[in-house]
Every structure is written in C-alpha cells, then in structure tokens.
Records
---
Amino acid sequence: DAGVIQSPRHEVTEMGQEVTLRCKPISGHNSLFWYRQTMMRGLELLIYFNNNVPIDDSGMPEDRFSAKMPNASFSTLKIQPSEPRDSAVYFCASSLAGAPGYTFGSGTRLTVV
Amino acid sequence: KQEVTQIPAALSVPEGENLVLNCSFTDSAIYNLQWFRQDPGKGLTSLLLIQSSQREQTSGRLNASLDKSSGRSTLYIAASQPGDSATYLCAVAQNSGGSNYKLTFGKGTLLTVNP
C-alpha cells in the first residue's frame, strides 16, 4: 500500500483565494482525520470522519473551513477565503475504526500571502 | 478536555547517551497512547503504541512506558545516535462515541543528538 496520500505537497496562494487540499486514505481504513500543525499550537484535530460521515468537526476554526468525504477513498479540506493565519502544515491520517494505530500522510504545507 | 504536555520542549545530548522523554495527560480515560517521530518537513512516523491495559512496549533501542493512573508516559532511547535527531510527539487516543477514537497530541520534544 502506498500509505496515506496527500496533494499538493506545497501550496502558495494569495489571501482571499480558495484552497483545496486532498487526501487518499489507506484502502480499507474507514476513519479519516484532518490535522493542522503550527509552531504555536502544535497538532490540532480539525475534523474526522467514520465511514465517510463527519463525526466531530468541533476543531474546524471557522466557517471558512469545510471538509468532505464523498467516498471511502477520497477527502477534501477547503478553505474559502484563505487568510495568512491559515498558513500551516495540514496532515491527513487514516485508521481502521476501533483498531489501534494511525497512519499519517506527508502533509500539505500551505502558505497564504 | 484532554491536554497533553511534553517535557522538555527541546533536548540536546552527546551521541551514546541514554535519554528519557516525558509525556503527561490530564484525562486518564484513554484507549491507547502513541509515540511518533517527525523529521523536519516530513510527516509523522509511528514508533510505539501502548494499549491502555499495557504498561510498556519495546522496539529496538526504544522503550515506552505508560502509567495511566498518574497520566504519564515516558519514551526511553538507549545509546542515542545522530540519526535519532527529530521531534518526538506523544498522542493519546480517546473514545469519542461508538467505535470512534480521536488523537490529542502534545507539542513535542525536539531532540538533537550531537556526534
């Protein structure tokens, strides 16, 4: 298995633009997590899905952020409009619900200028 | 709300030294605890996972212990090498309903092993 695949690896965009981050979880995993990492706050859970259904989105900072999981093999995290304070590394992780262990993707480094 | 704290925030040691990284958490109702390694600009690599019913796990030169009642875990690295230089993250998993679990991370310990 190729692991959790995230794209793009790097994204630089101007303030106000829409940004879409993508994630392909490990085949067979039915839980998917989006995290954001910054120097100040460390790794924060934004939202997670179980069987494609959002379970907990309490970590989503505001309405500018939205996430979808249209099927078991794909998820997106969208920021519209983007702001400089959204600059961070965004990680996607997947796991088998009820089983120990999580696999993380390599992350997307987002810079909003 | 679960809070995870890691001490120290940074550690610099000479090669060959044995060292201990500390992790504490406020809510002892955890499902498991994981230690991850993160290299600069990279993702997270899982090192060790301790189930809530376990006391420790070992992998090579790494040993992780868990004292759930006191809300503490340690990661012991024996005979450290320059290749061990990285950020080490502690994360606790908690049940959030049904078969759903979510991880709460500490901010990590930045380890530098000097040749």
---
Amino acid sequence: SQQGEEDPQALSIQEGENATMNCSYKTSINNLQWYRQNSGRGLVHLILIRSNEREKHSGRLRVTLDTSKKSSSLLITASRAADTASYFCATEMQGAQKLVFGQGTRLTINP
Amino acid sequence: EAGVAQSPRYKIIEKRQSVAFWCNPISGHATLYWYQQILGQGPKLLIQFQNNGVVDDSQLPKDRFSAERLKGVDSTLKIQPAKLEDSAVYLCASSPRLAGDVGELFFGEGSRLTVL
C-alpha cells in the first residue's frame, strides 16, 4: 500500500505564481524525499529532508516537514513553464531500507 | 557520469507472452531497485537488490515475475506470462548506499510495456 498521499492530485497555476504541494504519511520515517517526473521520463530527485529537520531549501524549492502531523510540503516559487511535471513524495520508513512513493501531484504551469 | 540505462524503451506484446527488461545501474552503485508505475499512479517497488542479493521482493508477483542481478551489476526483470494488468512503465533505479538510510535514488528513463 502507498505510504504517502499527495494533495492536491492536480494543480494548475499561472507562470510566476507559487505552487504548493502537500504530502501526508502514516508511519514514522527516517527521511522524506521529493521527486519530479516529466511526461514519459524517469524520476529526478529534488530534495531530501531528514526526520530531525524542519525546513530545507534548494534554489526555488522549499520543503518543510512536520513529524508531529506526519506531513510535508513542497513549495516552488516563481514557477516556470518548465516546472510542468508530476511531483512525488517518497518516504523511507524507520526500520525499512526502501522508499515508498505517493500517488503524485500533476502540476501544470500556464504561460 | 553515465546514468541508469534501461532497454527496451517500449514493448508491445500479446497477453500470455513473455517479456524481459534490462537495466544497467550507475557504475559502483550497490543497490538496485525495480519499480512498476501504472499510468496515473506512483511507482510501486517490485524488488530491491544489494549487490547480487535480494533484500526485498515482498511485492513481486512471483508466479509470473522474476528478476536477477548477476555479478552485482546489471539486472533483468522478466514477466511470463504477461497479463493485461501488467501494462505499465518499469523503472529501474540505483543507489550507492549499502547501509544506513536509502538516500537519493537515480532513475532510468523506464521501459513502457503495453499488453494487448
């Protein structure tokens, strides 16, 4: 079964706006990762946040983690058409050395 | 550095036929994963290898799916016989990690299977 659930399932915004995607999970984790997948391509790693971290930045990406609520958010600032893709959160549960992916958020950036 | 290589990129077969997918991970990466991604869903782990040993194959349908990683380098995933519900993209990923947490996975472009 899927550990993470992304919300919303689909998001459409105008270029230049910020995009926020959320991920909730069920069990304690070692870390949480976000990946991007362009249509017809493989997944590309964006950012990893460990369970003892609360916030992490990478360029226009900002990830937060709230372990008390078992949730994470990915913020993409100043969106570009090239950001159009599906975004997946993946969790590594404690005691299990594997990544479990959520269903993803399909992000569309309109020019 | 070369990425994860997969072939074929596309395959169309009739149900009950067999198919094989090949993956060559990034050089030196000890851990290799096969994921199945059905259209509109997230990737689901089928099998995980560390070097040439199986770490997790709990979600591999063993009556029809098999995988091997000879010599701890490249890997093949086979489906025999295929069913309609096997239509999906099969993603191979690798990681340099052997111990500790999983860390970042490096994915190939995937092999898209259509079963008619």
---
Amino acid sequence: NAGVTQTPKFRVLKTGQSMTLLCAQDMNHEYMYWYRQDPGMGLRLIHYSVGEGTTAKGEVPDGYNVSRLKKQNFLLGLESAAPSQTSVYFCASNFRGGGADNEQFFGPGTRLTVL
Amino acid sequence: GENVEQHPSTLSVQEGDSAVIKCTYSDSASNYFPWYKQELGKGPQLIIDIRSNVGEKKDQRIAVTLNKTAKHFSLHITETQPEDSAVYFCAASRPGGGNKLTFGTGTQLKVEL
C-alpha cells in the first residue's frame, strides 16, 4: 500500500495563477483533510471531507476550494494564488469512527511558493 | 472553537536524558489527544494517543499523561536518542464532526550527543 500520496511535491506559482493539488489514498478511508503548515503555527485545517461527494470548511478555508468526486481522491484548488498562500500543504485521511480509528495518516506534503 | 497551546517551542536535551512537552486545550468536550512526530521533509506520523477516559498511557520509551480537570496533557520521552530529534505536535479532537484535529504549534526537539 502506498498510503497517502500527494502530487506535486513542489510548485512555484506567480500571483494570480491557479493550480490543483491532488491527494490520493489507497486505504479505503472515508475521511480526508487538507492542512497547511506555516512556521510557528502548526498545522491548520483548510477543508475536509467525510465521504465521497461531501466537503466542509475548516479553520482557514478562504482562497481555497476542494472536491471529492471519488472516495480515494481529494483535490485542493487555488483559483487565484496569493503570496500569503506560500506554505507546505499536507493531506491526511482517516478511517472513520471513534474507538481506535481516530489516527490520521498524512501524506509527504507539497511545498508551494507564490511569487 | 478548540485552542491548543504547546510549550516549549524548542527543547534541547543530552542523549539519555528525558524530554517533556506540555499542551493545554480549551474545549472541555475534547476527548482524544494524539501526539505526532514530524521528521524533516516528511509528513507527521502518530506516535501515541490518549483518550479522556484514561489518565496515562505508555509505549516503550514514550508516555502521555492527561489531566482533564486542568485541561492539559504531556508527552514524556525517556532515554532520548538522536533519532528522537524531530518536531512534535500535540492535538485535540472532540466527538463527531469528522474527527477534526486542532494542533498545537509544535516543539522542535534536539537530542545532542
């Protein structure tokens, strides 16, 4: 199993450009998440999904859109990139349910720079 | 919403010493408290977690303690080794709502030889 994979690993954008980050998981997880990580601020939740076809806003959703058309994929879109969106983006997935199934599995991250 | 504070932001210990990282949370409904380790250039990985019905949990050299009354929980690493050097994050989650985690700001642990 590959676990959680992210594409691309690195990207440089100019202000105003758009891009889509792809997250894929092969663990048949119901829940998926997008976080951004900035120095001194930990990981902050952007959007999440509790199942195919559903999405919800997290703590810092402005400037981002997401889609979950297939259970295994979760896409994060930036329609008009801004320098404030320079960050490392992590995708995570979670089986669903309480008990022992709360662990979130993280991908390797995408480092995005917006000039 | 939930707010998680983590201290210290950096911690340097000698190999073999113990390290302690502390977190506080604000939402009394939170009932799940994981700790993640992030090595350079990688995604965070769960190392230990604890639920609100348990006061302490141990796994070899690492342990987590939880004080629900004071709303704080701590990570203890004993007999530290150079491979323990990493960034550690605490987090908290409440029931329902997609198992969302609120993370602390991280602690950079450096284990010196």
---
Amino acid sequence: QKEVEQNSGPLSVPEGAIASLNCTYSDRVSQSFFWYRQYSGKSPELIMSIYSNGDKEDGRFTAQLNKASQYVSLLIRDSQPSDSATYLCAVNRQGAQKLVFGQGTRLTINP
Amino acid sequence: KAGVTQTPRYLIKTRGQQVTLSCSPISGHRSVSWYQQTPGQGLQFLFEYFSETQRNKGNFPGRFSGRQFSNSRSEMNVSTLELGDSALYLCASSSDGGNNYGYTFGSGTRLTVV
C-alpha cells in the first residue's frame, strides 16, 4: 500500500463547476497535510495546508481533513481553465522533516 | 521576498560523470530539502538539512549526497551518473521543517543523463 494515494485522473470538469480531488494516507501519525498545484513544466506551488479535522477555506479552495478516515480532499469552486494542472497531495509526520507525495491528479477544466 | 533559487536550470551529463546542483533558500529559512521527480516515481524525498545538519535521508543510493552551508545554501551531488538519474531535481525550503508552514519549491534543475 502506498503511503499517499490519489486517483491519477485525468479528471475533467466543466468551467464553473466544482472540482473535487481526493487523497488517502496510510500513516496514522501524519499531522500536516498540503495540496500543491503543478503546471506542466513547472515546479509545485503550495495552495493549501490543513492540520486539524474539518474544513479550511481560502478563496475558491476548500481543504477537508478527516483523520479518522485518513482522508484529505480539495474542492475548487467555480473552476477556471487556469485551474487545469496536476494537484499533488503531500503529508508530513511531525518531526519527520519530509513530505510524502501522492502521484498527483491531473485536472482539466473544459471551457 | 526572493523565492527559492536553483542553479543551473538545465544540465546534460554523460553516464559516469558527476554533477553538483545548487539551491539558495528563501531568506530566513534554515530547512532545505531535496526531491527527485520522475514521471514513473513521482516526487521522492532525497534529504533534508537544517543548520548544516542532515536530519533525514530518503531511500536513495550513496551516490546521492548533499550538504548545507552556514548561510543555509545547499548543494546536492550525484556521482557516477546513471541513465535513471535523469529527472527534475527540486529544492524546497521551509522555516520549520515543513511541520506547520509547508515547503516552498524552487524552479528545479532538469538533469538529463545520456
């Protein structure tokens, strides 16, 4: 079992709709959770971080964390073509000083 | 505030050669990590340095090494290059080892081994 799992996609969503990206992790002592966006040919860019159960909203982005189910998700509201990218879920265990990444979900927003 | 700076952006090397990649973290960040990204394996952790000390190391052969200087700048070295070392090498910096504020990545060095 991989430490961090994501559906590789591609996930295709019409412009203006909600894109939902999911991630599960296996290490129960994981404490910090991050979503990175990576455009083709570019480096990952941090867009959301979440540390406690529940929802965290930032503009059009909402991260959701459920530690009991070992599940993290990212919702993108009012999806725009510029949101088309690969979204990487990353998990950090307190004191581990390293991020474990999922394989990423490729998202395409169709105009 | 300047971001994470990696040099060079592109490198082409021959099998058996060695290579050194450089990273300057965001000012004030003392934690620097290195990752390798390939299409097949995704993003994999190489090592992390904090105040010139390696605190964590990933599952890579000893040909991969790194160091951090007193000004927090970091270098990684790959010796006896193999074709499979062709990848995007990413440096990331953090103020706290990624526990609370995550990591900011540089633009990467794309290494091609021929």
